[in-house]
Amino acid sequence: MERIGDPPNPETVTLLAPDLVIAPTVFLEIYPEQMEQIGKIAPIFYITFEQDPIYDIFAKIADLVGKTEEAKKWIQEYEAEAAAARDKLQSSIGDETVTIFRVEKGRLRIYLNRNFAGYMLRSGLQAKAPEAVAAEIEGNIFASAKEISLELLPEYAGDHIFLIVRDEGDDKAAFEEIEKSGLWSNLDAVKNGNVHRLETDKYYGSDIVTIRETMKEALGMLAP
């Protein structure tokens, strides 16, 4: 793939000579000048992330490019895989809960039902969430994350924790400080060896390929 930059570089887009550009609605807010220029190169179809990534976003884009039947077949295959994965997960961990926890310097977040494995975990595998996490999702089904203080972690932590932290720089140092705390070592997931590290770049997206492939990988962590 040709990287077009962030913010997107209109000159690079011009060289790619697209017939169509698909972009998130948030780009209209944060990159208005660039999107105005790109709109002169090709028509832009804007999508919002406040909708289901498979049954809404994927289906709409498939219709847009004349691939409706191919999308339906992909969804059928995905649904069969997801159903089998849910059965295996239920047999392995039952009603044990799972949390996605990200550590950055100066910011701690619990991921919900969208990116960073959220959709895959909640809608694909349908892993049970702790009550505090479930309440956040119920309040906004496609919310990305909830920022918390370290003191609140026991309230949001599940029997299993998917941990996201870059293995370098300030983020790594921030997590090393957390690891030294009694609060971290007393979490059930930590004591029982149920902390699973996720690769930051691999798990970030909520596109169909990321959802499907990381579901298989995450299942292997939770139900080896």
TrEMBL record:
It comes from Paenibacillus agaridevorans. It is found in: Cell envelope. PANTHER family: IRON III DICITRATE-BINDING PERIPLASMIC PROTEIN, IRON(3+)-HYDROXAMATE-BINDING PROTEIN FHUD. Keywords: Coiled coil, Signal, Transport. PROSITE patterns: FE_B12_PBP. Residues 68-95 form a coiled coil. GO terms for biological process: iron coordination entity transport. Belongs to the bacterial solute-binding protein 8 family. Residues 1-224 form the Fe/B12 periplasmic-binding domain. This is Fe/B12 periplasmic-binding domain-containing protein. GO terms for cellular component: outer membrane-bounded periplasmic space.
